[in-house]
Amino acid sequence: MASVDALTDRPMRKDAQRNRDLLLSAASQLFAEHGVEYPLEDIAREAGVGIGTLYRHFPTRAALIEAVYRREVAQLCDSVDGLLAAGTANDALEAWMYNFVSYVAAKRGLSSALKDMMAAEPDLFTVTRSSIREAADKVLTAAVAEGAIRAVVEADDLIRAMGAICMVTDDAGYSDRAITLVSLLLDGLRAGAPGAGTASGLPRS
Question: Would the pTM of this model clear 0.70, i.e. be above it?
Answer without folding.
Answer: yes
